[in-house]
Amino acid sequence: MQDKTHQVDEVTGNRRMRRLRKADWQRRMVQENRLTVDDLIWPIFIVPGSGIVDPIAAMPGVNRMSIDKAVDAAREAADLGIPALATFPNVDLSLRDETGSEILNPDNLINQATAAIKKAVPDIGIITDVALDPFTSHGHDGIFRDGEIVNDETVEQLVKAAIAQADAGSDIIAPSDMMDGRIGAIRRGLDAAGHQSVGIMSYATKFASCYYGPYREAISTSGLLKGDKKSYYVDPANGTEALRDAALDVEEGADMLMVKPGLPYLDICWRMKEAFGLPVFAYQVSGEYAQIKAAAANGWLDGERAMMETLLCFKRAGCDGILTYFALDVARILSRTR
Q1: Of 69, 118, 260, 315, which one is the catalytic site residue?
Q2: Topology (CATH level 3) of domain 33-336
Q3: Cα–Cα nearest to 229, from 310, 167, 293, 154
C-alpha cells in the first residue's frame, strides 16, 4: 500500500484539529457550549400610566411599558420559555427626592408591576433591583449628602425596600448599588420578615463603566446625575478588587452573583465561577446592546450573528445565564431551531 502520509501529519504528530469540524453533524456533536432559552433573563422598563409602549431612542427595539403592556410582554416571554424578567422603573420626576423615599412606598411603580405580573403570569420569575437611582433626584444609587454617598443609612433603606419588594411578590432581590454590607443586611431583613425563600442575586462586581448611558436614558436619570459613581462602583482596571467584593457577598449570603457590564468583563465571569462555584450571571448592558444595534443598522455587522455570538461567549466564560435586552429576539430564534 502506498504511504500517503503528508508532511503535515509529521509536523502535527498525526493530530488534525479539523477532523471534528468537517461536517455539521460533527460540529454539533462536539460543541462545548450551547445557548438555550433557559439562559435568558429579560430586563424591561416600567412607566406610569396605561396603554403605553414608548420606544427608547438609544436602544432600538426596546420600549418603556406601562404595567398593562408589561403584563402582555410577560405573557409573551413566558410562552417563549424565558424563565425570568428583571424590572426597572422610570418613576415620575415629581416622586424623586434626595433620599429616594418613594422606594419605600409598598404601592410604588415597581411593586405594582411585580404584583400585576405575578398575578397574570405566576410561573415567570421576577427579579427586582433595590438600588435608589430610579428614585433619587440626584441619580445616585444611594443617599447623597454633603457630596458623599452615605453607606450605612443607604443600606438601612435598601433593606426596607427589599422587604417591600418581596411582599409584592418579587422572587429574587438583585441589589445593584454596591454599598458595603448590603447583601448580609438584606438577607437578615428578608429572613426576619418571613421571606426565607426569596433569593438574592448580587451585582457582585458592578464596574464604573461607560456602557450604562442608554440605560440612564431609559430610566430618566442621565440628566440628574451629580458627579460620578466611582466612589462605590469598581474601577474597570481592578480584577482582584472585584473578586474581593464578590467574596464578601458570598460570605454574606448571596445565592447568585452577577457581573456588570458583561462582554468587557468575561475574565471576571470566569474567575468568579472558578473561585466560588455559585451560579454566575452577566448583564449585557444597554451600551453593549446599543453598539450591536448601531453597527447592524449601518451594515457593519450581521446583527443577528453578533447577538448570538456574544451571548454564547458568556456561556463559554462560565455564566449560567445572561440578562439581555435581546432575550425576546433570541427566544424566538431558538424556538424556530429546536
Answers
A1: 260
A2: TIM Barrel (3.20.20)
A3: 154
Question: Which H helix or E strand runs over 197?
Answer: none
SS3 234: strand
Q: Cell for 196? A: 426565607
Interval 209-231: pLDDT, tens: 999 988 888 888 877 887 789 99
293 given a catalytic annotation: no
Q: Report d(CA 53, CA 196) in Å as an integer.
A: 35
Q: DSSP code of 235?
A: P
Let me know the angle formed at the C-alpha of 221 by 215 and 224, rounded to the nearest 5 degrees: 150
Q: Where are the chain's structural domains?
A: 33-336
Establish whether 260 is a catalytic residue.
Answer: yes
Measured CA to CA, the distance from residue 48 to residue 72 in angstroms comes to: 15
Residues 194-209 have pLDDT tens digits of 999 999 999 999 999 9
Q: Nearest to residue 46, comparing CAs of 74, 66, 62?
A: 66
Choosing from 69, 118, 206, 315, which is the catalytic residue? 206
